[in-house]
UniProtKB/TrEMBL annotation:
Lineage, top ranks: Bacteria, Pseudomonadati, Pseudomonadota, Gammaproteobacteria, Chromatiales
Key words of the record: Signal
Biased composition (Basic and acidic residues): 101-111
Annotated protein name in UniProt: DUF4168 domain-containing protein
All copies of domain DUF4168, residue ranges: 31-106
InterPro entries xrefs: DUF4168
Leader sequence segment: 1-24
UniProt key word Signal: yes
Annotated region (Disordered), positions in chain: 92-111
Highest taxon above the source species: Bacteria
Amino acid sequence: MSITKRVVLVLTIGLLTVVPVTYAQDGANLSQQKLEQYTQAQNKVAGISQEYRERLGEVQDREKATELRNQARQEMAQAVIATGLTVPEYNRITQAAQNDPKLRERLLKHQ
């Protein structure tokens, strides 16, 4: 699954918010460690997103759907933090990757 598709999955659940991009346009100041952490976080977030999308597809009650979305956000945030990144760092890298083909390519090499 491509980074863009994974980002869309995450955005549909609502973990991410748009934040200013602070990484250099080519992602040059993103360390190898941050790339690895991001890739780990992204894989975990994508799995959680998929799990909750399936669960949400089976729910018809609005309150239950809201509860599931909140659980998904919390689990995704915890998954990101467990990799050593903060949620704002994860969001900044995601946003930068959407706008920077070179960074996106670097991230794809780590998958």
